[in-house]
């Protein structure tokens, strides 16, 4: 099987490095200069500094080389994925397309696999998600992820090909739950970052994680996710990781908001865009998701952390 990774950000580079243990991998970068630099230095200094890219990872900006693979891991930001699929749909017929981004498209309110199904109907889609940081994967630290796929044959095949001695994949048929878990935990991670950046304390963060998880389950139930999925790696596992670590971009983004400090706008923050999408879905399904709505307003700068806290604390008292 020929494997290629589309997207040479931190996570795409980390996956390519890890999967090189199984054989040759193609890593596609949209920036020719970045691709040339990585190919020469064998390091992604901009996104994953300190992690060596093995020689059997072919780094390229040639899109045609990417399409030579029959299995593509799509490490493209969620808000750009739809446009990328639409542009290249003619070259993706019948291929295995594994979404590796976490988010809900603002325009269509679809998750990554739903976008693939809509824009490339002939493809065989899957979702790779769960608690993981790119540096951990690249450095061969033990990591467990969820691989969600509708077809048994495809899921078993992908599980075998994408697992390594340190990267363990657990199978699921619940694509909706896997999509939602990966997307929504980023929103809650921003809220936790705001909490800590503003100095509200560990107890407040614990409350946000707990009530945020309740919101994840609430929207999961409305959209048809299996509740068990959200208690697993792609839900609670990923939530626990990103709500507590400075290595999480979404958590760091929240920290910057809470502390009133600038944030590197070149860094992708999937949770900020997803918060807007979730708010729209909440309105459509008449769901009460106060933390997600507050994060959408915080990310846009329309409210302050103090206003957000006042909004949440002023809600009516009720049973848990």
Could you give a short description of this structure?
52% of the residues lie in helices and 14% in strands.
Got a strand count?
A: 10
Task: Look at the helices and sheets and give the structural class.
Answer: alpha/beta
Average pLDDT confidence is 96
Strand order across the biggest sheet?
Answer: 5-2-1-6-7-8-9-10
The helix/strand series, from N terminus to C terminus, equals EHEHEEEHEHEHEHEHEHHHHHHHH
Number of helices: 15
Strand content: 5-15%
Largest sheet: 8 strands, mixed
Based on CA atoms alone, the radius of gyration comes out at 19 Å
Report the principal-axis shape.
globular
End-to-end separation in angstroms reads 50 Å
Low-confidence stretches: none
Estimate percent helicity: 40-55%
Walkthrough of the structure:
The chain is of the alpha/beta class and 320 residues long. The protein is 52% helix and 14% strand. The chain has 15 helices and 10 strands. It has helices at 10-19, 32-41, 63-66, 78-88, 112-119, 134-138, 152-162, 175-197, 202-223, 227-230, 233-242, 249-259, 270-285, 290-300, 305-313; strands at residues 3-6, 25-28, 43-44, 48-52, 57-60, 71-74, 96-99, 124-129, 143-148, 167-172. The strands form 2 sheets. Strands 5-2-1-6-7-8-9-10 form an 8-stranded mixed β-sheet, with helices on both faces. Helix 8 packs parallel to helix 11 and helix 8 (175-197) packs across helix 14.
